[in-house]
């Protein structure tokens, strides 16, 4: 699986030129690429802002968890207000619930519902390469997403616990850098920290 990372305020990842995980803020970075599907890890502005422009450029479809789909367009729920902006209008084509496996040419993505940062946050796991696209649920070095922007710490801790059962070789987080250094240990550290905050 070939992965192209676009880093702006948040990370976006293009998989085999087919699937874009999160859209970022600036659609220009995607120029020259032609994704078929944009999967949004959650509704927040820094991950979704460029989605409508990318759809216009490429005709890509949009997938998002159903619990965050209803929040798209809400300035407060998407944290657009924190950026002094309005939430873009996004009409999802595919609503996710968690538990699905999405099949593409050469790879598959397991959808894991991981509420806590937002209610409809998801992580995506690619079993072949043991890659975890962790959105804003967990970050490297024991980090985790904020839980005061539409989520809560007990859900977040439960979601991180779910991720500790995965065999992860590489973590592709929504913020910070990609890491392949004992990722399960990093996720366990996030879990310990989340439990202390409960
Ligand atoms: Zn977020
Ligand atoms: Zn974010």
Cα-atom Rg, whole angstroms? 15 Å
Which class in CATH terms? Alpha Beta
The hetero compounds bound to this protein are:
zinc ion
Helix content: 10-25%
Q: Which fold name corresponds to the CATH topology?
A: Metallo-beta-lactamase, Chain A
CATH architecture, by name, is 4-Layer Sandwich
| Count of extended strands | 13
Q: What's the overall average pLDDT, rounded?
A: 97
Structurally, the number of domains stands at 1
Please give a structural write-up.
The termini are far apart. The chain is an alpha/beta fold. The model has no long low-confidence stretch (mean pLDDT 97). It is 21% helix and 27% strand. The chain has one domain: Ribonuclease Z/Hydroxyacylglutathione hydrolase-like (Metallo-beta-lactamase, Chain A, 4-Layer Sandwich). One zinc ion is lined by residues 42, 44, 117, 136, 145.
Characteristic key phrases:
globular; binds zinc ion; 13 strands; five-stranded mixed β-sheet; alpha/beta; 198 residues; 27% strand; six-stranded mixed β-sheet; 5 helices; Metallo-beta-lactamase, Chain A
Compact summary:
With about 200 residues, the chain is of the alpha/beta class.
How is the topology of this model organized?
Layout: E1 3-7, E2 11-15, E3 19-21, E4 37-39, H1 45-48, H2 51-58, E5 61-65, H3 66-69, E6 94-96, E7 101-104, E8 107-113, E9 122-126, E10 131-135, E11 138-139, E12 143-144, H4 153-163, E13 170-173, H5 183-197
Parallel strand pairs: 3-4, 4-5, 5-6, 10-13
Antiparallel strand pairs: 1-2, 2-3, 7-8, 8-9, 9-10, 11-12
One zinc ion binds next to helix 1.
